[in-house]
Design goal:
The protein is of the alpha/beta class. It has helices at 37-51, 66-71, 86-102, 113-125, 143-149, 163-172, 200-209, 231-238, 258-270, 286-292, 308-315, 328-331, 346-357, 361-378, 381-396; strands at 25-29, 55-60, 75-78, 107-110, 130-134, 157-160, 181-183, 218-222, 247-251, 277-279, 295-298, 320-323, 338-341. The strands form two sheets. Strands 3-2-1-4-5-6-7 form a seven-stranded parallel β-sheet, with helices on both faces. The longest helix has 18 residues, at 361-378.
Length: 399
């Protein structure tokens, strides 16, 4: 693809020449391509750009998701983007700037702070529009941290993944004007998270692997085993349930948090519910896990920036209970598609779970219909990608 060199025009502060019908070349930078929300969003954009006829380049330190970038039609460039060493970061500026010029890059999009610093200076050196996405609030407890974080607020457009993040930006970065902020929620792949595509065999396989007794209600709690995710509250709520058959399944990795997992096991033992708690690690078939669940709970005691679990669960038509803080309040409609409970409140959590489990089939089907429609209208991967490409078009002068 060829592209004219950047020029500065009145009313075109990014310095790009408008050409409404031309495809774009977009460079995304992130630390590495391993499992996580940043990585998943990057791969989703690669696929969407390729399908729309654009060119997608990703620069990172590598990882097992590189193959997903390439399968999605993107190109991967291996650079030490994970490094926080100032010398390495400065060298990355040169690498990226040369790439931007050589490949006629139209947009540079950064999703994490260390690579964002290199990308920011490379974009400025080449007069290329710079976009950032804020996936969560940053720790700004001292001046050094605030300075390090500030690069994410320097985008020509700054994408907030939820209204909660938008509010955080307005409070934290007062110089970031509203005309530069774009609220684009994360989205779920409705082709993947579709209850009709999950076979009985897949559910049975998980139930057997997790040693779930036949007919036992499954309370699914997806998420990494970290303290702020509030798994402790779920164990305390389990001990309060009148239904003694329910099984809680914690589906999430514990790497680096083994001591916390042991703490949870001891709590379950002390409360007499250890036989009804399953720690199953990372689940490779989350659609089947949701399909197996009677209710899905997100028990975070600190605000989620967005809350992917709640969106996936509702897309699968499952009753969903979340703590009423952060981004989850924007995705679950209380009394319609699920329930809010106060954080760190085992009594409320137990009551909401009991209500969900007790739904008759008609009420469960009605809730499922509302939940799926809600997600399809507001929180799909397609919408997320279309809105992001619109930001690229806006900045490149090709809208």
């Amino acid at each position: 693809m060829t592209s004219e060199p950047p020029i500065h025009e009145p009313g075109n502060p990014t310095g790009t020449r408008a050409a409404a019908d031309r495809p774009l070349t977009v460079l995304q930078v992130l630390p590495a391509l391993v499992t996580g929300g940043v990585e998943r969003g990057t791969v989703d954009m690669v696929t969407a750009l390729s399908v729309a006829g654009h060119r997608a380049i990703v620069a990172s330190s590598g990882g097992h998701m590189v193959q997903e970038v390439e399968r999605g039609g993107g190109e991967h460039v291996l650079l030490p983007m994970r490094s926080k060493n100032p010398l390495v970061m400065w060298r990355n500026v040169g690498h990226l700037a040369r790439m931007i010029d050589a490949e006629n890059v139209d947009i540079v999009h950064a999703r994490s702070r260390a690579p964002a610093w290199s990308a920011y200076y490379a974009a400025r050196r080449t007069a290329t529009p710079f976009v950032t996405t804020i996936h969560g609030p940053y720790n700004g407890q001292n001046a050094a941290k605030r300075a390090y974080n500030s690069v994410m607020f320097r985008g020509d457009r700054v994408i907030a993944t939820s209204g909660f993040i938008g509010d955080y930006l307005r409070q934290t970065a007062p110089n970031l004007t509203d005309d530069r902020i774009r609220m684009i929620p994360r989205g779920v792949d409705l082709a993947q998270f579709d209850i009709s595509t999950v076979s009985a065999a897949r559910k049975i396989q998980l139930a057997d692997a997790w040693a779930v007794p036949a007919g036992a209600p499954v309370i699914l709690v997806p998420g990494r085993l970290v303290r702020w995710k509030g798994q402790r509250v779920m164990i305390e709520a389990l001990a309060l349930l009148r239904d003694q058959d329910s099984v809680v399944v914690f589906a999430g990795g514990d790497v680096g948090h083994e001591a916390y997992k042991l703490e949870l096991r001891r709590l379950a033992q002390r409360l007499g519910v250890e036989g009804r708690v399953r720690f199953v690690g990372t689940c490779r078939d989350m659609p089947a896990a949701y399909a197996l669940a009677s209710v899905v709970a997100s028990t975070s005691v600190e605000p989620e920036a967005f809350g992917r679990v709640a969106v996936e669960s509702q897309a699968m038509g499952r009753p969903t209970v979340v703590t009423g803080i952060g981004g989850a309040m924007e995705t679950v409609v209380p009394g319609e598609t699920g329930w809010w409970v106060d954080p760190d409140n085992a009594t409320q959590l137990a009551e909401a779970v009991e209500t969900a489990v007790a739904l008759d089939q008609d009420a469960r089907d009605a809730l499922a219909g509302r939940a799926v429609a809600h997600i399809a209208a507001n929180f799909t991967k397609t919408l997320m990608c279309e809105r992001t490409i619109s930001v690229y078009r806006e900045l490149s002068g090709t809208a």
